[in-house]
Structure formats: C-alpha cells, structure tokens
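re: ur question from the group chat, yeah i did fold both. here u go
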Amino acid sequence: MNRQLLIGALTAITLSLPALAQYPARPVRLIVPFAPGGGTDTIARILAQKLTESWSQTVIVENRPGAGGLIGFESVLKAPADGYTLGLGTISTLAIIPLTQATPRYDPLRDYAAITLISTVPYLLVAHPSLPVRNLAEFVKLARGKAGQISYGTPGYATGIHLTAEYLSRVTGIRMIHVPYKGDAPALVDLFAGQISTAVMTTIVSSQHVRAGRIRGVAMLTSQRTKELPGVPTAIEAGYNIESQSWQGISVRAGTPTEIVRRLNTDIVRLLNNADVRTTIEAQGNNIAPGTPEEFERFIAKETGKWKQVIAAAGIRIE
C-alpha cells in the first residue's frame, strides 16, 4: 500500500471512531421519567454512581416525572443522538404508553436504540385474608360465581398492573371491577381494610405484607415461584399460561453511533454483573437480567405484541 492510500485508510478509521475513542468526554445524563425515591430511581442512582466511578465522568440522574413516564422518556428524543443522554425505560414507557395512545408520540423500537434490559420484577395477585381462596384455581372458581362483583385495585389506569389484571381476566375468563388509585400505597390501605377484595402488585410492594399476614398471596403471575415468597404458587401451576412482570432497561435515541451503543452495553452489563451491584439491586426485589442490545430489542418487541392484544381486547385508550 502506498503512502497516500495508507494515510487515507488511517484517516477513514480515525474519522469513523472519534466518538468511541473519546466517549464519554463530558458528563452524561440519565433520564428517569418518574419522581425521586421510587424503585426505578433507586436503580438509576446505583448505576449512575458506579458509571461515574468507572468512566471518571459524572453521570447525572435527572428526574422528569409526568404522564406515566411519557414526558421524561420522550425528552430523550429531544437530545442529540450522541450517547450523552440515556433513558431509563420501563414496561410503561417502552411498551404500554405508545399502544394506548390514539396517535403515539414515539415508537419504542424505531425511535430508540436499545442498550440493555436491567431487571424484572414479578407481579403477584393478592387478596384480603377474608377472601376464601388459597390459589388461582380457587380464585377463578369464586370469581366466575360472582361475575362482576369482585373488585381489584391498581396504581392507575393503563399501567402495567392494570393491563396484567386485564390479561389475567382474559386468560381465565373472569370479570372483575377495576378500582384505580393514584399509586400503590392507597390501594394497599384499602386492601388492608377490605374495601377492595384483591389487587395485582409487584413483589417489591407486596411481599412483606404477605409474609406478615396482612394480605394473602394467591398466585405469582410469572413462570416460577420467588425466593421472597416460596409458598405462593404460580398461575401456571393452576393451569393458566400467564407470564407478566414489571421491568426496566436503558435506551438512547436512535441514530446513536453503534460503537457507543456497544460501549454502553458492555460497561452497564459489566456493572450489573458486579457482585456488590447485583446484591444491592436484588435486595430491592429485582431480578437482574442484563443482555445484548439485540436481546433487549427482541424483548421489547415481544412485550409490545403481547400488550397490544390485551389493550385491544380491553378497549383501553388514553386520549
């Protein structure tokens, strides 16, 4: 190769990788589309601290709550596609919200580049202790005999928990009364008091109360029992193929250089596999589940397909 060709080849390589060679050269923002203090915010702050240490660049957590996560997550699209603005997405922002809008404001697969799934959290069907059921088979039998009489609480309309309850109803052929609340806490208060009969909740919210006997765990809505509540059977054990869980993962704006996407994936997955980080996040009730960008993209596509059917069947729509 002559000198001119060699110089040209080296220049091309240099120009194709400048972002990766310098990344991150300045502070990185991690957008959390919910208020401070929640489970998603806790995970974000753990990652931000560890990435700051790893990169020697500050990772700033920005909480931008509103519209069920829509406002904050959509703000990622208003930033340059350079890897300096990350979005911590959830089942709501990356699957449900766009499906419930007459005119979606973004497409999770087209407008964002997946980095990695972070963790999953099982959903659990719980009931007031006075309800005479110990498993899902007994619950379904009771609900069928009292069609439209059993009430269930959720932290809000069109949330992942609301859709999970609709999914449960669709698979089992039961009808219940939806009572939406503004969060998990008020739903729990009314469930403790017997004002509502049942609720779908994450194990993070409900496990301690099940163990204390304040509420009863009826069925894990995932394929496996959990170590937090090993005595609570799964829906599959009762003969119903139900798999539903909350989850969160990192995405960036589509068009971000592939090299930066790969770098982010490598660094975040390495942190999630660190024993101390894993222990801290799992102590919150999460199941660590990192993977490749392609695996996360397929996961989002699968979740979107499942919830699209549930939303259509239930007629759920947010204007």
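okk and heres the other one u asked abt
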Amino acid sequence: MIAFEKWHGAGNDFVIVDNRDDTLGLGDRATSEFARQVCDRHFGIGADGLLLAVTGGGVPVAMRMFNPDGSEAEMCGNGLRCFARWLWDHGEIGHGATRIGTGAGPRGVIVDNQGAVRVDMGQPVLHWSDIPVHPGKHVTTAWVTLHLPGWDASTLEATAISMGNPHAVIFVGSVADVPLDKIGPLLEVHQSFPRRANIEFCEVVSRTELRVRVWERGAGVTLACGTGACAVMVAARLRGLVSETAVLALPGGNLEVAWAGSEADTAHPVHLTGPTVKTFAGLWNLRLPGR
C-alpha cells in the first residue's frame, strides 16, 4: 500500500509519492507502470502526472515527474509548484527560497503565506540543438521558427523553446477555434521533435493577458501547464507582443509569468507564480505483473 497525496495547480493535477531512499523498491520500468496505473482517470486515481520525491542531485530533495503514458518528463512547472507546496505542508521547507532538484537541474521556489508558489524556471533554451528540434527543419533568427502542418491544409508557424522540456508555441486569433484533440497528437510526434513536444496555442488578449490551450506531451489536453505557460510568455516577448509580466488564462485557471528578456537579450530567468491546492490523500494498492 503506497501513501499518496493529490494536488493541482490551476487544474493541472498530480499524484505525489515520497520515494526518498527508494522506499518503494521500484525500478524505472515498474515506476512507469505505476504512473500509468495511478494517472488513469477511470481505473486509477487520475492525474496529469506522477511526482516522486527522491534524493540526489546535490540538493536535499528532488522531484521526478512521470507522464500518464509512463514516460518521464525532464521538467514540470505546475508539478514543481505543487511539489514545493507539498513539502511546505509537511514542514520540510519554509517561506524562504529553496532549491529543488528536477530532471532539468535544480530550480528555486518560494511559497507565500497564502499557499501560492513562485518558481524560478531558469533561462529559456532557444538554440535548435538544445531544445531539441530536428536539424534541417528550422529557420533561425534569435529563435527557432518551425512551419508545421495545420488542420485545414494551412501551415502553422511555431516558435520552438525549451523550458527544460521541448515546446512549440503557435499564435492564433482564437484558441477556442483550435481543434486541439485533432491537431495536438499529430504535432506532438511531428518529425521536427526527436523527443516529442508540448504544443501550446496562444491568443493575445492584451499586453498583459494571454489566453492559452495546451496539448501536453505524454498526457494530452490538460487544464494548465507551467512550463507551457513559460514557453508562451517567452515566445510572446520575443515577438514584442506582451509586457514583462502577464497573466495567462488557461482552462483550469490563471498563472502569472514574468520574463524580462527580449529578442535582443534572452539571458533572463522566467518566473512562474500560481495557486496550489491539495484535494485529497489516500493509499494505493500497487499491482505489478510478477510481483
């Protein structure tokens, strides 16, 4: 029986399990199966991802994130915010800045008195080989522009960015008109993305507000995405569309993202802030083949 807690950030929901010192005794293959079981919304707990507390990486605690399909993600912004709040709730971190390990390296977090969590997501990665996007499928200015197939014989112009995981940001007139269930799974596995990609569609409402819908790699349509929100903000700033701080309205709620960078100077960290909510806790009876 495995103890867990369920958390969400703007509707982006996660199952959190303490696996420090490998207390679960699971290898990577079994952990992937564990993720598939618990994230299943019909036969499991239901979540956009499984977060494991682990040790290592030169910091007191680190987070591993597994998608509902069992694949491991390098980074998850909303997951990290929920993970930090989980640590705070258990008295393991205070209100000051704390560094938490991730697959993309340590990240700084701050929990405020109302439970909102601010994450220093680090600098965006814009070089095609580091995102990565496939060689020969990009046009480079200060960033990478991809030309991807649309849903009606059109061509979509996407900005490729990594926030520790790969993203493609596409600006449209109305996100409500995007057939996300149809185009999302096609673009995620497009040949331009050797590690697949998260796909974000963005509608610019004003200089301080963006409307966003997300198809997450390994998860599908989600109500919010922290790294996706950061990638959208960077793409919008590169194109001169928004101020240094903006509210991103996602189907599950609002996230605030700040980035002081621009096309001329990209060497600035992205900061992500938003709510975190614990929904319930329980015990999961893990059943693995051969165990």
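fwiw on the second one: The chain has a mean pLDDT of 93. The chain has two domains: 2-120+277-284, 139-268. idk if thats what u expected
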